[in-house]
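Data deposition worksheet. Section B asks for the primary sequence of the deposited chain exactly as it was used as input, without tags or linkers unless they were present during the calculation. Section C holds the resulting structure in token form. Section D is free text for depositor observations; keep each observation to a single sentence. Incomplete worksheets are returned to the depositor.
Section A, Depositor: J.P.
Section B:
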Amino acid sequence: MGVGRTQASGGGHTLSESEIVEAALRVVREDGVEKLSMRRLSRELGVSPMAPYYYVADKRELLDLVATAALTGVRKPAPESGPWQQRLRELIDQIDEKLRKHPGLGDVLIEQMLGKQLDLIAALMEILDEAGFSDRNVLNAYATIHTYLFGRRRVNPRDRSPMSEVALPKVVARATKYMPDLRGKYAYDFGVEVLIAGLEAQLVRQPSPDVR
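Section C:
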């Protein structure tokens, strides 16, 4: 079905694709993807309970719309653009940029693991396949990337109260000074570099191609 243009909602109000997407993401951020429903979306948009059905048929189609719209512009780097490590990093960076721009998108993509976003999964897996990973390791490498990209958003560092009575071990106390970094570029770069270096190491250890 999809929303390619602004349409009438049946109640005199019009909705655009961006309004629906942003409203759905707000619900996901506030209540979680499991609480997103057509009725909850209509309340967020301030329209009648039936209005969203003029645009999407059900929650699954709504999630497809949100994921497709939010990921617009993500492109798989061409094979000739550089080594697999560079191309993989470029694609991961593009996805992370969308996750930062659209808070809540990560939860939608986890819910849509094998939905209409197969092109995104395929783009990552194709780079891994071109690198020489076995089919089994293509899947495991993708799962590792998926977990890092979307799972790290669930890390929610909180400042400890200065009045806390719990004395931290010295090494923990020193390290936790950098808790704010966990949401920033330094931690992201660190994680991606470790991930790609780990994939390189696994590729070297992989059995010969005749057992792929």
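Section D:
The two ends are 40 Å apart (CA to CA).
The chain has two domains: 7-70, 79-211.
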